[in-house]
User: Fold nicotinamidase from Chryseobacterium tagetis.
Amino acid sequence: MKKALIIVDVQNDFCEGGALAVPGANEVIPYINLLMEENEYDQIVLTQDWHPSNHKSFASNNDRKVGESIILNGVPQFMWPDHCVQGTFGAEFHKDLNREKVTHIIQKGKNTEIDSYSGFQDNNHFMKTGLDDFLKYHEIQLVEIVGLAMDYCVKFTCLDAAANGYVTCLHFKGTKAVNVKPENGRDAIYEMIQKGVTILG
Assistant:
């Protein structure tokens, strides 16, 4: 069974000191590096939030406050601080992430009108990123997923992977939650388990 490691959004803005820092984010990087060192993957894919500066998920572009919600093209949208803007330091992968064995990069969130949490498609399930096509082309059947953040981009990437028929595993030690609400991370785990995602310690 061919397998891939999908590393979700390990970018400066989601790490310590970033515009949308995930608590404890930097702690997962050594674990992710160790996975790549100790395991043989047929493909290693990075996903990268890659927003235009006028992206509609940014509170600043809607005259809203961070933490508010709006309806964006029929989909509820949480208002985020500006983050991972194309070409900025915040959008770059963290320097401590070992990228020597990376075989492919998927950029997402490029459409100003809709956010894209999942590495597979945008939030209204309209535009695909090409990740599913890439994995199927390389005959990948099993995906292991790590990265940031567990209750948003990691969760939706896991759910889409399972829905697309991949044996899907999440490395719990390789992810951290935003926890806008304290229970978000816990609830994300429950939801993933219900949809067939295996949680690895």
Remarks:
- Helices lie at 28-38, 131-137, 150-163, 184-194.
- The chain has a mean pLDDT of 97.
- Residues 150-163 form the longest helix (14 residues).
